[in-house]
C-alpha cells in the first residue's frame, strides 16, 4: 500500500489519466464481456474438457465413478465409425444442396424484382414470408408433403405428381438411404431463399444507376453489364449470404427432427448424433460431436471474419 | 466493427477468465447435494410426462386417491409435456445432474433405471415394499423383473402394459377371406395370411418409426426364441450371433416387407389409425392402442380384434411405469406418501381404470375394468412375464439406442442381415 505513494508523481498521473480514459468504456463493456466469457467461451472450454475424457456412462457423468483423460480417442473413434461418417456425408450433401438452392433461387428472384415491375412489394413479401415460419412448424407440414408412399397410397407431393400426370417423378423422398437428406433441404431452401433474395435485392439497389448508365453509354451489352459492373459489386453480399446460410445449414437440427425422427438412419447428421449420445448419458461423445461441429462452423466463419477485418482496416 | 489491438486483448482476457471460471466450477458440484430439509412432508413434487389424454386422466384419478389417503400432503404437479416423454426425460437428466431432483419421478421399471442406479441418483425402496406389504401383492415373475442385479428394488410400479399384441381390423380381414378369430400357432402361419393380403393389394401390417419397429423386433424374438431364450439375450446366456437369432431376424425382415413404406415418418397413433381406418389389416403395438380404438367407438370383437403376436401366446411382454425415490429429494416424507398411494389397491384401480392399463397388483377386481383390460389382467396372472426391450424394461438406454440405430439402418436398407446381427450383438454387450 505504502509503495503506491512512493511512485513518482508524473508516472502516477499518466496512469490515472489512462485509467480514466479506458475505465468507463471497459466498465460499460464488462457485463457483456463477462457473460460472453462465461457462457460462450467458458462453456466451449468445459465442452472440450468433457470431450477428451472417457465420460461415457451415467455414473461417470455424476462423478460417482472416475473419468479418465483419453485425449483425442473419442474423436478418432467417432471419425472411424461408419455411422458418423454417414452423418458427415449427410451434412455435406445437405449443405451443398441447401446453399446452391438458396443462392440460385434468391438471386433469380432478386434479379427479376430488380426490374421495375408492378406489385414488387407484394412479391417481395410473398417470397420473404416463409422465413417467418419456424422450422418446427414448417417441418410438420413438409413431413406430410414429403410422404414416401407411392402408387395407391400416395399422398403429399407424390399424389400431386400423380394428379398432374408426372408419375415418374414419384420417389421416396427422405427415406432414400443415400440421398434422402437432400429431400429435407427442399423445405430449407423454400424457407430461406426469400432471405437471400432480400440480401441481393439490397445489393442491386445499392448500385448507383449512374454506373449502369455509364456502362451502357460505353456500349456494354446487358450480359457484360452484369458480368463486369454488377456482379463484382454483389460479391460481398453473396459471401455474406453464403456464410449466413452455410452456418445455419451446418447446425441443422430442428427441421430434420420435425420431419424425420432422431433414430432414423437415413437422416442422421452430427447434431442429431449429439442429441442421441446425450440421451444415452454418453456425455463425452456428445461433447466430441459438439466440438467437431464447432470446428466445422469455425472453418467457414473464421476466414470470413479475417477477410472483413482486413477490408475494414484498408 | 473495428477491432483495435487493445480490445482484442481484452476479449482474449475475458475468454481466459471464463475458461478459468468454468474449470473452477467443474470440481465443486458434489458439495451441496443430499441433505434437504427432512421431515418437510408438507408437499410432494411428482415429475411425470402424463400431461394429456388418458394419461392425464389417470394421473388426476391417482391424485384424487392421494388426497384422500394423505390429506395433509400437498400434491405439486411436475408434469412435462412433449415428445412422448423425451422432453421430460431431457429435463429430468438436467435436474438430476444439477442435484435438484423432484421428490419422485416417473420412469419405466426395469433396466432403464440402471443408469440412475449407477449414478446413485435413486434410493433402494425395498423396505417400502415390506412396509406397504407390496411383496405379495405383485406376481413373483414381476418381482424378479423389478429386482436389480444387487438384489435391491428401486421403484414402485403404478401400472402394467403389454407390448406383444396384434390389433386387426375385422372388416378388412373378412373382405379378404381371412377369419378374424383364427388362431396362429407361429409366425409362419400368420405370414401365409399376410401374403394373401399383400396379393389383394392391402397393406398387411402397419408399423411406424424406429421404436415401433424395435417393438415388432422384440415380439418376433420372443416368438422364435421362446420366453426363456429371449430373456437370456439380456443376461448374456443367449448368444446374439446364434442361428436361432438369425432365423428370427429373417422373420423380422420378412414381416417388415409387409409394412407401409411411409413408416419412418409416422408415430404409433398414425400406424394404429391405419388399422382403425381399414387401410391396413394388422398392427403390432402395446395395449395402450386400445384407447385409440375405444375413443373412436370401435367394439372389441366386432370392429377390431386383439391377440398376442403369433408364437407368443402365453407370454406377457411387460413394461411398467413406476415411481422412484431420488437421492436428496427435498420432501422424502411426501415422496413416501406418494409411493404408498401408488402401490395401494385403491390408487392402482383408480389410476388404471382411467389410463387403460392394468394394475401391477393381482388383487384388483376385474369386474371394474373394460373388456380388453380384463383379458390382459387374466394373462398377467397366468402368463410367463418377460421384459420389453423397446420400453426400457429389458436393457439400459444406451443399449436400446444402439439397437434402435442398428434397426433403423437395417430397415432403411443400409445394412444386410449379417451386419445387422453383428451390430445387435455389439449393442447388447453395451
UniProtKB/TrEMBL annotation, chain B:
Residues making up the signal peptide according to the UniProt record: 1-22
Organism: Cellulosimicrobium arenosum
InterPro entries in alphabetical order: SBP (IPR006059)
Key words, A-Z: Signal
Record-given protein name: Carbohydrate ABC transporter substrate-binding protein
Amino acid at each position: 500500500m505504502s509503495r503506491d505513494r512512493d511512485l513518482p508523481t508524473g508516472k502516477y498521473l499518466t496512469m490515472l489519466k489512462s485509467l480514466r480514459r479506458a475505465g468507463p468504456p471497459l466498465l460499460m463493456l464488462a457485463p457483456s464481456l463477462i457473460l460472453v466469457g462465461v457462457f460462450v467461451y467458458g462453456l466451449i472450454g468445459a465442452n472440450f474438457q468433457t470431450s477428451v475424457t472417457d465420460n461415457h456412462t451415467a455414473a461417470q457423468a455424476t462423478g460417482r465413478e472416475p473419468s479418465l483423460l483419453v485425449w483425442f480417442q473419442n474423436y478418432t473413434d467417432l471419425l472411424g465409425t461408419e455411422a458418423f461418417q454417414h452423418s458427415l456425408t449427410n451434412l455435406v450433401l445437405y449443405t451443398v444442396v441447401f446453399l446452391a438452392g438458396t443462392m440460385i433461387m434468391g438471386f433469380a428472384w432478386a434479379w427479376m424484382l430488380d426490374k421495375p415491375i408492378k406489385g414488387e412489394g407484394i412479391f417481395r413479401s410473398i417470397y420473404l414470408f416463409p422465413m417467418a415460419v419456424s422450422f418446427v412448424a414448417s417441418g410438420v407440414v413438409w413431413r406430410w408433403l414429403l410422404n414416401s408412399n407411392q402408387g395407391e397410397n400416395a399422398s403429399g407431393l407424390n399424389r400431386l405428381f400423380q394428379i398432374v400426370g408426372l408419375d415418374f417423378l414419384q420417389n421416396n423422398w427422405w427415406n432414400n438411404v443415400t440421398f434422402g437428406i437432400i429431400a429435407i433441404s427442399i423445405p430449407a431452401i423454400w424457407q430461406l431463399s426469400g432471405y437471400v433474395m432480400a440480401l441481393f435485392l439490397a445489393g442491386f439497389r445499392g448500385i448507383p444507376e449512374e454506373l449502369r448508365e455509364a456502362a451502357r453509354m460505353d456500349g456494354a451489352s446487358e450480359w457484360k453489364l452484369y458480368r463486369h459492373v454488377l456482379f463484382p459489386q454483389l460479391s460481398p453480399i453473396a459471401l455474406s449470404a453464403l456464410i449466413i446460410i452455410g452456418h445455419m445449414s451446418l447446425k441443422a437440427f430442428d427441421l430434420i427432427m420435425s420431419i424425420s425422427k432422431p433414430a432414423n438412419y437415413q437422416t442422421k447428421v452430427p447434431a442429431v448424433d449429439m442429441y442421441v449420445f446425450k440421451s444415452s448419458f454418453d456425455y463425452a461423445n456428445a461433447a466430441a460431436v459438439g466440438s467437431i461441429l464447432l470446428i466445422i462452423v469455425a472453418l467457414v466463419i473464421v476466414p470470413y471474419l479475417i477477410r472483413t477485418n482486413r477490408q475494414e482496416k484498408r | 466493427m473495428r477491432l483495435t489491438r487493445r480490445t482484442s486483448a481484452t476479449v482474449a482476457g475475458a475468454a481466459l477468465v471464463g475458461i478459468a471460471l468454468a474449470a473452477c466450477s467443474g470440481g465443486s458440484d458434489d458439495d451441496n447435494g443430499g441433505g434437504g430439509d427432512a421431515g418437510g412432508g408438507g408437499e410432494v413434487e411428482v415429475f411425470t410426462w402424463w400431461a394429456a389424454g388418458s394419461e392425464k386422466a389417470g394421473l388426476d384419478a391417482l391424485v384424487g386417491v392421494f388426497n384422500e389417503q394423505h390429506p395433509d400432503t400437498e400434491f405439486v404437479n411436475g408434469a412435462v409435456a412433449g415428445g412422448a416423454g423425451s422432453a421430460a426425460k431431457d429435463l429430468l437428466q438436467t435436474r438430476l445432474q444439477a442435484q435438484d431432483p423432484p421428490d419422485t419421478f416417473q420412469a419405466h421399471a426395469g433396466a432403464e433405471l440402471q443408469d440412475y442406479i449407477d449414478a446413485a441418483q435413486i434410493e433402494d425402496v425395498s423396505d417400502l415394499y415390506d412396509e406397504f406389504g407390496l411383496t405379495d401383492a405383485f406376481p413373483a415373475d414381476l418381482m424378479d423383473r423389478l429386482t436389480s442385479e444387487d438384489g435391491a428394488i428401486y421403484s414402485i410400479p403404478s401400472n402394467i402394459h403389454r407390448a406383444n399384441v396384434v390389433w386387426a381390423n375385422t372388416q378388412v380381414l373378412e373382405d379378404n377371406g381371412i377369419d378374424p378369430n383364427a388362431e396362429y400357432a407361429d409366425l409362419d402361419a400368420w405370414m401365409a395370411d399376410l401374403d394373401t393380403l399383400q396379393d389383394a393389394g392391402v397393406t398387411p401390417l402397419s408399423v411406424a418409426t424406429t421404436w415401433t419397429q424395435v417393438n415388432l423386433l422384440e415380439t418376433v424374438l420372443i416368438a422364435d426364441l421362446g420366453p426363456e431364450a429371449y430373456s437370456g439375450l439380456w443376461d448374456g446366456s443367449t448368444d446374439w450371433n446364434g442361428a436361432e437369432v438369425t432365423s428370427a431376424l429373417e422373420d423380422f425382415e420378412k414381416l417388415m416387407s409387409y409394412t407401409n413404406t411411409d413408416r419412418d415418418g409416422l408415430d404409433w397413433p398414425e400406424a394404429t389409425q391405419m388399422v382403425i381406418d381399414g387401410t391396413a389389416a394388422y398392427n403390432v403395438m402395446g395395449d395402450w392402442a386400445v384407447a385409440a380404438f375405444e375413443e373412436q367407438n370401435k367394439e372389441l370383437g366386432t370392429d377390431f380384434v386383439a391377440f398376442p403376436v403369433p408364437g407368443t401366446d402365453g407370454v406377457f411382454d411387460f413394461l411398467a411405469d413406476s415411481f422412484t425415490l431420488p437421492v436428496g429429494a427435498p420432501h422424502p416424507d411426501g415422496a413416501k406418501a406418494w409411493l404408498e398411494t401408488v402401490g395401494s389397491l385403491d390408487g392402482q384401480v383408480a389410476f388404471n381404470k382411467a389410463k387403460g392399463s392394468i394394475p401391477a397388483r393381482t388383487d384388483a377386481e376385474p369386474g371394474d375394468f373394460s373388456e380388453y383390460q380384463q383379458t390382459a389382467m387374466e394373462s398377467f396372472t397366468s402368463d410367463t412375464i418377460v421384459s420389453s426391450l423397446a420400453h426400457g424394461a429389458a436393457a439400459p438406454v444406451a443399449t436400446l439406442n444402439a439397437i434402435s440405430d442398428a434397426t433403423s439402418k437395417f430397415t432403411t436398407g443400409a445394412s444386410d442381415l449379417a451386419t445387422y446381427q453383428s451390430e445387435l450383438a455389439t449393442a447388447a454387450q453395451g
